[in-house]
Amino acid sequence: MQAPSSEDLRSTPSRSSSTHLGHTPSPIHSHRQSFTESLRGHPPSPRATRQPSLSQSQLQELLNNPPSTGSTDPRFAGRDWQTIGVGELCDPADLRWVEFTSGIEDATNVLINSGAHVLLVRNRKDERAAHATYDYRDLTQYLLFATGQLQPDEEHFPIFTSLANKAQAGHTIPLREAKSLGNKEPFITLPSTANLTHAIEVFGGGVHRIVIVQEGTDNVVGILSQLRLVKFLWENGRSFPILDRLYSQSIKELGIGSQHTISINGDRALKEALILMNREGLTSLAVVDNQSNVVGNISNVDVQLLTKSSSAPLLDNTCIHFISVILSTRGMNDGKDSFPVFHINPYSTLAHTVAKLVATKAHRMWVTDSPSPSISATPTPTLLSQPSVSHPPSHLSSLPQSNPPFLPLSNTPSISASALPGAQAGRLAGVVSLTDILNLPSHSSLITSKANPRK
Predict the structure, then answer these.
(1) Would you place residue 196 in the very low, low, confident or very high pLDDT band (cuts 50, 70, 90)?
(2) Among 177, 199, 178, which residue's Cα sits nearest to residue 190?
(3) Does the chain have fewer CB atoms within 10 Å around its N or its C terminus?
């Protein structure tokens, strides 16, 4: 599949027989703003949706003195946490809506500009019932199809062809059709009267969010995510002594987390990381150097930096380079140097781990051992050791050259893994996810549920 040009992710089709999401501008039609062009101009600040980063002094302070739980909500004092209704943790004001008929460009603008992590999708503007969601995982998948990095299977090829034809004609691609390609996040609902035990059982299977509806109706009153529930139990820990006593124990003592990790070498192309995340259903991916030291983290939310056509060459550049772009963008927006905080060690307490998850709004923390010495400060692409991931197919279409503000690939400075702040994080040894945290009550025989920490 031929990728679109840098001027337009839906540009002139290739002469090859492969179909792609592109269109040929017609001289008899006025120029139509494309998916990427509609997002061009001033890039949206990632502060609202990207996991917050910390200054060097803040980082050291968090490492030395992880914050204690916040002041408890008096509404929950003395109550059994298992009997609290899921609706009590939701706020209808947080909901953001789009329609199935909305164009993929418009939906993406709402997702990025609203600061929401997920949009609810409905049939009509006058209804309060949701039938699907649209999030950064959907956006990542669409961009991979649109730029030729993914091709549809036989079942979805007719849909893909229809979308390509619409794009060629300059028509809006409805969200309903765009979401019909590839894998989808499970759409799970619970009535507002369901208790937290029920929610944790659902989250135990690796589901990231639950749509909460009014009892006896389909009207949505909120969204409960894994992170929101973890934050609630953390901030109100003193109200639930049976949970609060777990916070002083170490990750190793609790026996949580997984030693099975999926990572990617920092010198691999960014497009390979996104394909890997899409295939494995991951929300984030550890980036490592040749000695398996963690040098950074890429999440689905970071894909918002790829929605301009001028940033298309980043897909062919390295993961390390993309991490430097993330840090640079955050530095410009925050006006200070910033460092990602996505790692712990086996002896970190649960309090330390949850504090970091809540502070960074991350879905997982990488468990690291002492750093392994680097053989070379600058990675040599021809001498790379094999990364700890399965490589995607090599038949990926090449991407075009870039427009400012990004340099052409041939002029992009080489960046060493050891030059990134995360290079001192240590060797990747495991991962602790929100799913692991939410399954901790089963260790106290409160509930029985099985986690899928890879999700």
Answers:
(1) very high
(2) 199
(3) C
What is d(CA 168, CA 21) in angstroms, rounded to the nearest whole number?
Answer: 7
For 433, the enclosing helix (H) or strand (E) is strand 427-433
CA atoms within 13 A on the CB side of 262: 23
Helix 136-146, helix 104-114: angle, nearest 10: 140
Q: Which of 269, 278, 319, 325 is nearest to 295 (CA)?
A: 319
**Interior angle at CA 378, CA 55 and CA 300, nearest 5:** 50
211: pLDDT strictly greater than 60: yes
**pLDDT tens readout for residues 272-285:** 999 999 999 999 99
Condensed to tens digits (0 to 9), the pLDDT of residues 110-142 reads: 999 999 999 999 999 999 999 999 999 999 999
Structure tokens at 315: 């897909």
Matching residue, tokens 């001289």? 27
How do residues 307-351 score in pLDDT, each as one tens digit?
888 888 999 999 999 999 988 886 555 544 445 568 899 999 999
Nearest CA among 43, 44, 53 for reference residue 297: 53
Go through 71-93 and write b for each residue having 16 or more CB atoms within 10 A of its CB, e for each that does not: eeeeebeeeebeebbbbbbbeee
Terminal Cα-to-Cα distance of the chain (whole angstroms):
29
For residue 4, which of 12, 320, 155 has the smallest C-alpha distance?
12
Distance between CA atoms of residues 114 and 123, nearest Å: 20
152: left (phi over 0), alpha (psi -120 to 50) or beta: beta
DSSP string, 309-366: GGGGGGGTSBHHHHHHHHHHHHHHHHTS--B---EE-TT-BHHHHHHHHHHHT-SEEE
